[in-house]
C-alpha cells in the first residue's frame, strides 16, 4: 500500500514538472525580458475593447486592468499627507472600512519649511509604505503648484512660493514613494494656483514665468524624480483645458521632458474626446461634468475616453496609434508597480511612521517672534499655563477636501502640552469656535461666541503665561479644496479675541496653524509668535517639544507673509490678475512671485520667505568660492563657516541667493539657488559648502525658447532669509 502511494506521488510530480516545462511563459509575463518588449507583447494580445477599458475609470479610484490576461487593476488613493480612507465604489461616501486608519504626516507646507530634503525622503518612503500596504498603486500626490497668493485654498498641500525649494524637496519625496513600487502622482499640471473657478479659469502667463516659476518643479519631478504618474489640472491655459493640452502635455511634458509615464486627469477634468485622444491624456478619472453624466451613477462607459473614443476609432476619425500609445504608458505603469513581483509589501500606521511624522513636524514649525525668551517654556517655569483657541483641540487631519484623512492617532496640542507640563498646570478654554467641516459649505458655529469669549477672558486673568492656538482650520474657505479664502484676516473673530485677551494678560504667545499667511494686526503687542501647520498625527507632541525647548525650532517660512494683502504681487494688479475677470486671468506679476516681488519692488514682507528663528543664534563667517571665474558648465562651490553662538544645540538653513550684475533682461533682485540645513551643537562651528551649478543661474529666454546664462558677474548671497543677507561673494561667469 505504502509502495503504491509513493509510486503515485512520483508520477504526479513527474506530470507536474513536464507540464511546467512545456507551458510557455508569455513574453509579457517573463521577467527576464525588458519591460518595453513585455509592453509590446501585452499590447499585441489585447482587443480594442480591452484597450479602451484600460484608459478610464471603472470606479471612483480604480481602472480595470485586463482581467483576461491577468493584468491587474490599478488602484489609486489621495495623497499627499497620508493614505485616504476607502471611498465607495461609485459614490464619494466613505466606505466605512475599519482597517484604513492611517498615519497623518504634516502638510507639505510644513515639509517645505524643514528646508531639509532628507525629511522629504523619509516622508516619501513612509507614506509610500502605507500606500503599498493598503494595496494602492498610485498615491495621488505630491502637489507642486506655486503659492502665488495667500488666498489659494490649497496652498497647504503645496511647497510654498519658490520653484527651487519646491524642486529640491519634491524629488526625494517621489523617489521615497516609488521605491515601494507605488507610483507618486505629481499634480496639478499646470497653473492650478487657485481654487476660485478652478474648473474653468483660463490662465494667461508669459513663457518666462511659465518656465521659471510654474513648471520648474514639474520638470524636476519628471527628469530627476522620474515620476511615473502626472495629474492634469482642471483649469485652462490659453483657452485649452490643461488635462489635454497640446502645448503643455504634448510639446512640453512628453516632448521637451521626454516623460514616459501616465498623464491622468484630475477627477473630471477631461472635456473633449478628440483633444483627449490627440493631446496626451492617458487615463480619464472622475468625469461627471458638462452635462455628460452629472451625478449619474455607473456612467463610466460615457467617459470621453470610453464609448465616444471607441466610436471615433472605429469610424476612422481618430488613429489607433493614439490609443496604443496610451495603453503602452498604462502597461508601463503596471510593470513598474503591481506587476513588479519584487516590490516590497509596505507597512501601515506603525510607530516608526509616527516618529517620522513627529520629526518632520518638529523640523517644520517656524518661530517668528520671541521677545525676552518667551519661548522655550521649561517644565518648571510656570505654575499656571492657560491655553486658548479651538485649534488646540480640533482635529485638523479631517477637512480640506481630497487630502482628508482618517487617522489611527492624532495628538492635539492641548494633549501634548498636558503630557509635557501636567494636568495641574495646564488650563484650557476654546475662546472662539467654528462650525463643523463640510466640504463645500460654510457651516455656522454652534457655539455662543460671547460666552466663549467671556470664559477665555476670565481664565487668562491669573495665568502666568497664555498660549493662543488659532489660525485656519481646513473648513470651507479656510484652507480647503474647491474654494479660496474670502479674507486675509483670521476667521471666527480671532483678531478681536487676541486683542481683548492681550488687554487682560500681556504674556501671551500666538501659535498660528494654517497653510497660508494671515494678517496680524496684533503683532506688535504679542511677545512671541509661531507659524505652525497642519501637523498630522503627532501635532501635539511636536508642538509641545518645541514649546518646551526639548527640540529647538529650525523651520523657515516657505512663503512670504505680507503685511497687507495688496503687498502681494499677484493681488496688487487687481481682479484681472487675481482672482480673474469673466473667466480669464493674467499673471501680471509675471516672474515676480513671492520674495522676488518684495525684493525687486522694495516692498518689505511682514515675514520674509526663508525666515525663522531658533533658541540659539548663528554666526555666519565670510563667504568664499572655490574660484573667481567659471565656465558655463562649471559648478560654483560657495563656502562659509557657521558657528552656533548660543547655549542650545540647533539647526540653521543657510540659503544662497543669486543676483546677476548687468542682465540684458529684467531679473529679480535675487533668486534662491542653494540651501543647506546644518545641525550644530552649542558652541560648534562647521564649514558649510553649497554647490551652485552655473547652469542654474540661467533665465528663460522666451524669444529663443531656451535657458540662457549670460557672461556676467553674479553675486551669491549667503542668507538667513530672503531679506537677511549675512555675507556675499561675487564671481564671474565667462
Ligand atoms: C483633486 C485632486 C484629487 C482628486 C481625487 C480632485 O478634486 O483636485 O487633487 O487627487 O480629486 O480625489
Structural summary, described in words:
The chain contains 19 helices and 27 strands. The N and C termini lie far apart (92 Å). The structure holds beta-D-glucopyranose. Beta-D-glucopyranose binds next to loops.
Question: Tags for this entry?
Answer:
globular; six-stranded mixed sheet; 734 residues; 27 strands; 28% helix; alpha/beta; binds beta-D-glucopyranose
Seen as an oligomer or otherwise, the chain set is single chain
How many β-strand runs?
A: 27
Estimate the helix proportion, in percent.
25-40%
Structural class: alpha/beta
Cofactors, ions and other ligands in the entry: beta-D-glucopyranose
- Read across the widest sheet, the strand sequence of neighbours is 1-2-3-4-6-9
Low-confidence stretches: 12-16
**Distance N to C terminus:** 92 Å
Percent of residues in beta strands: 15-25%
Brief digest:
The protein is of the alpha/beta class and 734 residues long.
Give the helix/strand layout.
Elements: H1 2-22, H2 35-45, H3 48-54, E1 62-63, E2 74-77, H4 108-113, H5 117-133, E3 138-139, H6 163-178, E4 183-189, E5 202-204, H7 207-214, H8 216-223, E6 229-232, E7 236-237, E8 240-241, H9 246-256, E9 262-264, H10 273-278, H11 307-314, H12 320-336, H13 351-364, E10 366-370, E11 385-388, H14 413-421, E12 426-429, H15 449-460, E13 465-471, H16 494-504, E14 508-513, E15 528-532, H17 539-548, H18 569-572, E16 584-586, H19 595-601, E17 618-620, E18 624-625, E19 629-630, E20 635-644, E21 650-660, E22 671-680, E23 685-693, E24 699-701, E25 706-708, E26 712-721, E27 724-733
The structure holds beta-D-glucopyranose.
Beta-D-glucopyranose binds next to loops.
Amino acid at each position: 500500500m505504502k509502495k503504491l502511494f509513493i509510486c503515485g506521488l512520483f508520477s504526479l510530480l513527474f506530470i507536474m514538472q513536464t507540464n511546467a516545462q512545456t507551458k510557455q511563459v508569455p513574453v509579457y509575463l517573463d521577467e527576464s525580458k525588458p519591460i518595453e518588449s513585455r509592453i509590446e507583447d501585452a499590447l499585441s494580445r489585447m482587443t480594442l475593447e480591452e484597450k479602451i477599458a484600460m484608459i478610464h475609470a471603472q470606479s471612483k479610484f480604480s481602472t480595470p486592468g485586463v482581467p483576461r490576461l491577468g493584468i491587474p487593476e490599478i488602484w489609486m488613493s489621495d495623497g499627499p499627507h497620508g493614505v485616504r480612507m476607502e471611498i465607495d465604489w461609485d459614490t464619494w461616501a466613505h466606505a466605512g472600512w475599519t482597517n484604513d486608519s492611517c498615519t497623518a504626516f504634516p502638510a507639505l507646507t510644513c515639509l517645505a519649511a524643514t528646508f531639509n530634503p532628507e525629511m522629504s525622503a523619509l516622508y516619501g518612503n513612509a507614506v509610500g509604505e502605507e500606500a503599498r500596504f493598503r494595496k494602492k498603486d498610485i498615491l495621488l500626490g505630491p502637489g507642486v503648484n506655486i503659492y502665488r497668493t495667500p488666498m489659494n485654498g490649497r496652498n497647504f498641500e503645496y511647497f510654498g512660493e519658490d520653484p527651487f525649494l519646491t524642486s529640491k524637496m519634491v524629488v526625494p519625496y517621489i523617489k521615497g514613494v516609488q521605491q515601494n513600487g507605488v507610483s507618486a502622482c505629481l499634480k496639478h499640471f499646470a497653473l492650478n494656483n487657485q481654487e476660485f473657478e478652478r474648473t474653468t479659469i483660463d490662465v494667461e502667463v508669459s513663457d518666462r514665468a511659465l518656465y521659471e516659476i510654474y513648471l520648474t518643479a514639474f520638470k524636476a519631478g519628471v527628469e530627476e524624480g522620474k515620476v511615473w504618474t502626472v495629474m492634469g489640472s482642471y483649469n485652462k491655459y490659453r483657452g485649452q483645458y490643461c488635462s489635454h493640452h497640446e502645448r503643455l502635455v504634448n510639446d512640453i511634458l512628453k516632448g521637451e521632458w521626454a516623460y514616459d509615464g501616465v498623464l491622468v486627469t484630475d477627477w473630471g477634468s477631461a472635456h473633449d474626446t478628440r483633444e483627449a485622444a490627440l493631446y496626451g491624456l492617458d487615463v480619464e478619472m472622475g468625469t461627471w461634468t458638462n452635462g455628460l453624466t452629472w451625478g449619474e451613477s455607473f456612467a463610466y462607459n460615457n467617459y470621453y475616453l470610453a464609448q465616444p473614443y471607441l466610436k471615433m476609432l472605429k469610424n476612422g476619425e481618430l488613429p489607433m496609434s493614439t490609443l496604443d500609445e496610451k495603453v503602452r504608458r498604462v502597461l508601463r505603469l503596471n510593470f513598474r508597480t503591481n506587476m513588479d513581483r519584487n516590490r516590497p509589501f509596505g507597512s501601515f500606521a506603525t510607530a516608526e511612521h509616527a516618529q517620522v511624522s513627529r520629526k518632520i513636524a518638529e523640523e517644520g514649525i517656524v518661530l517668528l517672534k520671541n521677545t525676552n525668551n518667551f519661548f522655550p517654556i521649561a517644565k518648571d517655569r510656570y505654575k499656571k499655563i492657560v491655553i486658548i483657541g479651538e485649534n488646540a483641540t480640533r482635529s485638523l487631519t479631517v477637512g480640506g477636501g481630497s487630502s482628508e484623512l482618517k487617522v489611527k492617532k492624532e495628538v492635539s496640542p492641548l494633549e501634548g502640552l498636558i503630557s509635557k507640563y501636567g494636568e495641574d498646570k495646564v488650563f484650557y478654554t476654546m475662546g472662539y469656535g467654528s462650525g463643523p467641516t463640510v466640504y463645500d459649505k460654510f457651516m455656522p458655529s454652534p457655539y455662543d461666541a460671547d460666552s466663549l469669549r467671556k470664559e477665555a477672558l476670565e481664565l487668562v486673568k491669573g495665568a502666568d503665561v497664555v498660549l493662543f492656538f488659532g489660525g485656519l482650520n481646513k473648513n470651507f474657505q479656510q484652507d480647503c479644496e474647491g474654494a479660496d479664502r474670502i479674507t486675509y484676516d483670521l476667521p471666527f473673530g480671532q483678531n478681536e479675541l487676541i486683542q481683548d485677551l492681550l488687554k487682560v494678560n500681556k504674556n501671551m504667545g500666538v501659535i498660528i496653524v494654517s497653510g497660508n499667511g494671515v494678517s496680524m494686526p496684533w503683532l506688535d503687542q504679542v511677545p512671541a509668535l509661531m507659524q505652525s501647520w497642519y501637523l498630522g498625527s503627532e501635532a501635539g507632541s511636536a508642538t509641545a517639544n518645541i514649546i518646551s525647548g526639548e527640540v529647538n525650532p529650525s523651520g523657515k517660512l516657505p512663503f512670504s507673509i505680507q503685511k497687507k494683502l495688496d503687498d502681494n504681487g499677484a493681488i496688487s494688479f487687481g481682479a484681472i490678475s487675481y482672482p480673474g475677470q469673466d473667466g480669464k486671468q493674467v499673471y501680471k506679476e509675471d516672474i515676480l512671485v513671492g520674495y522676488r516681488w518684495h525684493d525687486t519692488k522694495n516692498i518689505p514682507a511682514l515675514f520674509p520667505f526663508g525666515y525663522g528663528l531658533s533658541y540659539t543664534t548663528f554666526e555666519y563667517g565670510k563667504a568664499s568660492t572655490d574660484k573667481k571665474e567659471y565656465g558655463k558648465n562649471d559648478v560654483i562651490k560657495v563656502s562659509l563657516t557657521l558657528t552656533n553662538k548660543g547655549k542650545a544645540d540647533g539647526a540653521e538653513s543657510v540659503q544662497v541667493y543669486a543676483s546677476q550684475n548687468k542682465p540684458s533682461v529684467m531679473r529679480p533682485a535675487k533668486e534662491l539657488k542653494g540651501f543647506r540645513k546644518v545641525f550644530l551643537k552649542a558652541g560648534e562651528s562647521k564649514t558649510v559648502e553649497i554647490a551652485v551649478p552655473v547652469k542654474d543661474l540661467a533665465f528663460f529666454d522666451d524669444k529663443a525658447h531656451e535657458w540662457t546664462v549670460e557672461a556676467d558677474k553674479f553675486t551669491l548671497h549667503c542668507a538667513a532669509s530672503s531679506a537677511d543677507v549675512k555675507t556675499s561673494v561675487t564671481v564671474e561667469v565667462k
